[in-house]
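In the previous chapter we treated chains in isolation. Here, by contrast, the input contains two separate entities that must be folded as one system, with a combined length of 686 residues.
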Amino acid sequence: MYKYDQYDQAIVDARVDEFRDQVERRLSGQLTEDQFKPLRLMNGLYLQLHAYMLRVAIPYGTLDARQMRMLGSIARDYDRGYGHFTTRQNLQFNWIKLADTPDILAKLATVEMHAIQTSGNCIRNISADQYAGAAADEVADPRPWAELIRQWSTFHPEFSYLPRKFKIAVIAAAEDRAAMRLHDIGIQLLERDGELGGAIYVGGGMGRTPMVSHLIRDFVTANDLMSYLEACLRVYNRYGRRDNIYKARIKILLHEIGPDKYRRQVEEEFVAVKQLGLDPPRAELDRITAMFAPPAFETDAPADIDRSDPDFAVWLDQNVVAHKQPGYAIVNISLKPAGGIPGDATADQIDLMADLGERFSFNELRVTHAQNIVLPHVAMRDLRKVWTALSEAGLAEPNLDLITDIIACPGLDYCSLANARSIPLAQKIAGRFADRERQRDLGELKLKISGCINACGHHHAGHIGILGVDKKGVENFQLSLGGSGAEDVSLAKITGPGFSEDGVVDAIERVTDTYVDLREPGERFLDTYRRVGFEPFKAAIYG
Amino acid sequence: MVESALLRFRDDEPHDEPAVTLDAFLGQSNATAVRLEAGEDARALLPQLGQLALVEVSFPTFRDGRGYSAARVLREAGYTGELRAAGDVLVDQLPLMRRCGFDSFAPEAPIDADVLQRSLDRYDYRYQPAADAVVPVWKLRHG
């Protein structure tokens, strides 16, 4: 894991001092709310329906036990005893007092954490594959590149007032577990002639106008990475639309001028900025990469597991994934228990996960964009112990990637932008499909709910997506089918007229029944949908 | 202590010729001061950069960040004259503007000098090189 040196620490400490100063000026009236807003947003502080929400950055979703415990401690001392893990691999506290925020940030800084650029029209927290460093299919660990980008983008003087927010994801495997193609910039690390480089995709995003990104450059080495990104961002900062916030994301610029023209502008800019010496020496990437060296795995660790307990066996099959090191496994901790709020964890659960990460996963935890937690490096001989501890804490729901592993935004229960409540709907759907055999029979089925058109719940990328809208003062839910945020990326298609909360649950059931009727052996829901098309599902839904 | 006057980080005397619009500048060859509106292309000035003593870049609202790129483009092209940020220029944006090469500020509203000084002095280290003389952290690490 990355460890701060004196420079990283000094920058984060200075940020705490700066924000303390800004909060004091706001509380004393020197700053208007209008002037304070972009400043607090640049530090992840939103004003929601009932309170301030503070979003803490978890760079590329990686954290250690000490950091996880600090999140639990803040949840206990400054919030209502829980936190919410987000689709950007961050954590949100929903009940924060403005006057407490400088102290919270000071505490975070003691464990090398911050809330820098977790919102605002700037380059946001960099996300990455949650299985980085553990996945059998990766060409390299993507996190050293993500850390390079984190440092380059932190307080970037030119790109702190972009037309709109800017999200970057880095992956290094053919399987895309980070929705890379739905980011403003997505980078896929590849090997070419023995050298590592990134394919640069630009212009993806969800929101009200979802778009899949375009390949802009097929290979950029680490020697040119910062200059290339600087060029990508400068073209956007200069030419991205600022007349309408709904058309201000880089995807709209690419849509309007076309990827070829954008590419020409970037390449021209790149030639110019490459002369400026923006790129750190290879020694800097080497320094960072050394900190992500694989942990001291035991060679010849035993791989046999006693599967005689059926509950344990189900969890193994559903939530545990192959590791690149023999004798080890990747454990997914579902934060989607039946009746729960997707992505929420109590302070006690956060502490327990920290303990398990420390004892059984080389002191590492990950947050996934599907709002779950990962213990990336667990010895197979410890799986039973880990499962037992998780079960006792209500954290062993065996539903990874099943229909009840729902991504949902906070919705109208918290968010001032929302049109509809996402959480109660997620709970109703989870209740309808509570039967574990039935869920497992339906197989991989990614269901995603957004409470408004801004699409924080990734509904465009759902195999089944739901969008909450306001229809003459009444919550209404639009159903869409066929999206994917993975390497087979696609955007979901709206089925037709919307439904009430109960109506949409019934409609989902008609969709899954249709799938069960039509599927061929081995087909996931998405495969069947793609083979038979939209019409049989539409007919079943609207009859 | 409050100042609303022009803030300058240069030793020379303020330029006293009024800035003309970009169109006027491109149409008349002898102007030495020009004002760029937020959407105007700083690169249009590059062929005549040598004759300019003042470029004023407009910030119609602090949220409009195009001026930061305009400043970088001009400094990267070798412009050494006065580069002024004018309009909705606030104390919390000013350190970033300094890094992009602005050395003169005409804020609409007064800027508190004490807050500004704290703000300019706050960060000892910066991750990335820009248009100022700051040595980036990676260079401090590796020499």
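The radius of gyration of chain B is 16 Å. The longest strand of chain B covers residues 54-59. Compare these points with the single-chain example from earlier in the chapter.
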